[in-house]
Design goal:
CATH architecture of the largest domain: Alpha-Beta Complex
Distance between the termini: 31 Å
Largest sheet: 6 strands, mixed
Shape: globular
Structural class: alpha+beta
CATH class of the largest domain: Alpha Beta
Order of helices and strands: EEEEHEHEEEHEEHEEHEEEEHH
Strand content: 15-25%
Amino acid sequence: MTIACGKRQQLDEPGRPTVRGVVITSPGRPVYPALGYTKLDLARLYAELAERMLPYIAGRPLTLVRCENGVRSADALRRECKFLRHEPGWHRWAHEPIRRVQIQEQKKVGEYLVVDCPEALVALIQGDISEIHAWNALANDVEKPDRVVLDLDPGHDVPWPHVLEAARMLRAELRQRSLESWPKLAGGKGLHVVVPFQAEHGWLEVYGFARDVAEALSRQQPDRFTLDFAKSGRSQKILIDYKRNHRAAVAVAAYSTRAHPDGTLSMPLSWRELTPSLSPRQFTVDNVLARIHRRRADPWAGFWKARQRLKP
C-alpha cells in the first residue's frame, strides 16, 4: 500500500516530461550508458516499482548514492558516484514531498531524507540518486530497530551455489532461535537475509544478537565462514557481515538500483527461488518489471505479517 503525499506544485516547464507530477530535468541524460538507459527511463521505472518498494523504505532515514554523470565503470562508487553526507548542504536538490528529519549522531545532529510516497521516490531520481540504502529503524522511533540484515559477502573464489547453501544454513540457525527470515539479492555478488521483529529493543541488544548469530555459524563452519573484514585471506570464505545492524548502519533497499554499468537491482526472493539457476546479478532495470508482472505474488508477503519477537 502506498501513501499519498498530496499534489506536488510544479512550475510550468514546457517540453520537460513529468513523472508522478515531478518534472524530470535532463531527461535524456544517460544513467546506464551501456544500456542506453536514461534518467527519464529510471524515473518511470521507480514510479512503476513504488508500490512494491515503499514498504521497505517508507518512513526510514535514508543514505543515498548520487551519480550525476551516469554509471560507466564497475567501480563507479569510487570514481563516479558519491554517498551523500547527512548535512543540509548536501540536500539542496531535495524538495517536497521528500521529508527531512534531524537525528542526533555521535558528534552532531545529522539531517536525513525520508520518502513516504511515489512522488517522493521519483523526486529522488530527479536528484540523480542511483542507490537507496535504509536504516533498520523508522525515523519516528530511531532507537528501536525493527529488523536485522545479515549480509553474506563471498570471497572471489567462492562458487555461487555455496552462497545459496550458506543462506539456508543461516535460515536454519535463525529458526533455532524461533525466527523466520527472508532472502534478498544485493544486486552485486552477495545475498542478504533479513529478520523482522517487533521494535522493542535498543541498538546494542539488536547488534549483539546479530553478532551472536554470525559467531555461531562461524564456529560451526570455520572453513566456510569468516567474521574478518580484511580482504586478504578470505577469498575462499563467506564473510557474515553483521555490522549492518548498529545504529545508523544501512543496507541497500529492496528494488533499489545499483551503481553498476549493467543496471542491477536488489531483489527480494522467496526461499524456493534459491536454486542453482539463480544468478547474483540476475535482475536489472531491463527485466525487473517483467519479473513483477510474471510473479504477481509478493515473495515477502509473510514478512509484512510477521509479529515475531527478538530474544537477545
